[in-house]
Design a protein that fits this description.
The protein has 15 helices and 5 strands. With 381 residues, it is of the alpha/beta class. The N and C termini lie far apart (70 Å). Strands 2-1-3-4-5 form a 5-stranded parallel sheet, sandwiched between helices. β1, α1 and β2 form a beta-alpha-beta unit. The chain is 57% helix and 7% strand. It has 2 domains: 129 residues, Rossmann fold (3-Layer(aba) Sandwich); 212 residues, Hypothetical protein af1432 (Orthogonal Bundle).
Length: 381
């Protein structure tokens, strides 16, 4: 019966053929040995095989590119975080060893080689990295499950709000998607907002709660089919502060970033760059970037979505109206980003619910079925 078990790959980078042969012999037949005669060949092998390589045994003094050059490149590509390196060299000066450790090596072995020392340190390093990888995967799984639960609860709550307001559950999904696209693109264009991956994920998730304050708006105003009176519009506008107040009154989790972003978005997503928004009349970058992005995404999707009281505008018309300031003033920088992302946004929106995850798709379809039934009976806006 053929043994199909894959061997652990170890890369030996040393310009001495004899040294490579000695190390390969010391390690034995339990490993698949890859060889490189200099630093450039070692990097080529790392690029070609990537994470298939479990360990690098690296010499310092090599032609074309030395061991320190290899380590510098591995730091640039972040490979040093995934692939452990044991430096093997006759260089035993404190400065060289210190420099190697500063560049991220896991261990240092001086020549001449001692077979037991080499084998033990190789085994220890492989086991240590395997345990670290397993731990990281466990932590990542726990974070994923927590994030999944948070997302599900936010989606359920936001769908309740959308249903009561007579809107499709797709509005929540579209605002989430457009917000995330905008923030990721903004991060590429500037570092003025200091957006991390975590910030973008949390803001996109919190965007689902942007209209939660509408729970407190009376049905006769919320679902009025015609134009609101000035007094009714004043009441409608209170939903922004109402939503923020609900979050501010939460008895727990006040220090959580998700709650902070949700508060910013609820309270300020109707603020406008020229200071003519509500509820606080904030101007320019007094408005948090979270609220600016969600506010823009909300307006775009509202324009391009059909309601019982209006037809949907085309993608092109909606962009024209937003850029011309017909829907309030937005940051010129955000408008530029929206314009440059226009084709991507249209493609993502046009994908439809079949391209979303199963759980979200089921929620959307159920909400839309109930909404159509209400509209058929003349109960929904």
């Amino acid at each position: 019966m053929e043994d199909t078990e894959k061997k652990i790959k170890i890369l030996i980078a040393d310009d001495s053929e004899m040294n490579r042969a000695i190390l390969a012999e010391m390690l034995g037949e339990g490993y698949e040995i890859l060889e490189a005669v200099d630093g450039e060949e070692a990097l080529a092998c790392l690029d070609r095989c990537g994470s298939e390589i479990s360990l690098v045994l690296l010499d310092i003094v090599m032609p074309n590119l030395d061991g320190f050059g290899v380590l510098a490149r591995m730091n640039q590509t972040k490979q040093i975080e995934e692939i452990p390196v044991i430096m093997i060299s006759a260089e035993d000066g404190a400065e060289a060893i210190r420099r190697a450790y500063n560049l991220g090596i896991s261990d240092y072995i001086s020549r001449p080689f001692d077979m037991e020392v080499v084998r033990k340190r190789v085994t220890n390093t492989l086991m240590l990295y395997a345990k670290q990888k397993q731990l990281l995967e466990m932590v990542a799984e726990q974070v994923y499950e927590k994030q999944k639960s948070n997302t599900l609860m936010v989606n359920i709550l936001s769908h309740i709000v959308e249903f009561r307001n007579g809107e499709s559950g797709l509005h929540v999904i579209h605002v989430h998607m457009i917000t995330k696209l905008l923030l990721e693109y903004i991060r590429l264009k500037t570092d003025r907002y200091s957006l991390s991956d975590s910030d973008i994920e949390l803001i996109a998730m919190a965007s689902a709660l942007h209209d939660i304050g509408k729970i407190a708006i009376p049905d006769e105003i919320l679902n009025k089919p015609g134009r609101l009176t000035d007094e009714e519009f004043k009441v409608m506008k209170t939903h922004a502060a109402m939503g923020a107040s609900m979050l501010e009154d939460l008895p727990v989790a006040q220090g959580e970033p998700l709650v902070r972003y949700s508060y910013e978005i609820c309270r300020w997503h109707h603020e406008r760059y020229d200071g003519r928004g509500y509820p606080d009349g904030l101007k320019g970058d007094e408005i948090p970037i979270s609220a600016q992005a969600v506010g823009l995404a909300d307006v775009y999707d509202a324009l391009t979505s059909e309601r019982v009281y209006k037809k949907a505008f085309t993608h092109e018309k909606a962009l024209e109206m937003i850029v011309k300031g017909e829907c309030g003033a937005f940051s010129p920088f955000l408008l530029e980003s929206l314009t440059e992302l226009a084709d991507t946004i249209r493609e993502e929106v046009e994908k439809g619910p079949a391209d979303y995850s199963g759980e979200v798709k089921v929620n959307i379809e159920r909400a839309e079925k109930m909404l159509k039934e209400r509209q058929r009976k003349g109960e929904a806006r």
